[in-house]
Design brief:
Helix content: 25-40%
Largest sheet: 2 strands, antiparallel
Number of helices: 4
Radius of gyration: 17 Å
Strand content: 15-25%
Order of helices and strands: HHHEEHEE
Strand order of the largest sheet: 1-2
């Protein structure tokens, strides 16, 4: 019966400044996505070794989703754009009509990762040496603003995904 309480602690109540935390966490996720793309390009092209960017000596289940997996990346779909853009729209209307968008052209979130990031504690960044995040709570921060849901739109290897994440 305490599952709802634990989810509130992890997703809603942990942030003292929910809006500022949402901006920070989603911006950091976008930066991590772009840097992951750049690291993948370096590794796949032979300019760098996996060990330059990843710690691979951890084998516990907690780290499995963070291991380097060359099959996740198809450079044919990588953009040359490495900019992260944050945009706020102050929309007219009743209720929660304003929109905050975070846009990047990083690696994208594939189907397996998409299911994972909806779980508290899931992370693909625990073994990355340069990632800003690694705890698996940043993708859920939008729920801390008391918004009833937020939308993730992502493209990975030519496939577009759009998911609404609802509180509870």
């Amino acid at each position: 019966n305490a599952t709802g309480l634990m989810m509130d602690i992890a997703q809603v109540n942990q942030y003292r400044y929910p809006i500022e935390s949402t901006v920070r966490e989603l911006n950091n996720n976008a930066i991590d996505s772009v840097s992951e793309k750049l690291r993948a390009i370096d590794i796949l092209s032979g300019k760098a070794k996996v060990s330059d960017f990843f710690v691979n000596e951890r084998s516990e289940d907690l780290y499995q989703d963070s291991k380097w997996d060359a099959s996740y990346y198809n450079t044919d779909y990588f953009s040359d754009n490495n900019t992260v853009r944050l945009t706020y729209y102050d929309n007219e209307g009743v209720g929660r009509c304003n929109t905050f968008e975070v846009y990047d052209e990083g690696v994208g979130v594939g189907m397996q990762r998409l299911f994972g990031i909806l779980e508290v504690g899931y992370s693909t960044k625990r073994l990355r040496k340069d990632a800003l995040g690694a705890w698996g709570v940043g993708a859920k921060v939008g729920l801390s603003t008391e918004a009833p849901y937020y939308t993730i739109t992502t493209a990975h290897n030519g496939i577009l995904y759009k998911v609404r994440v609802y509180n509870r």
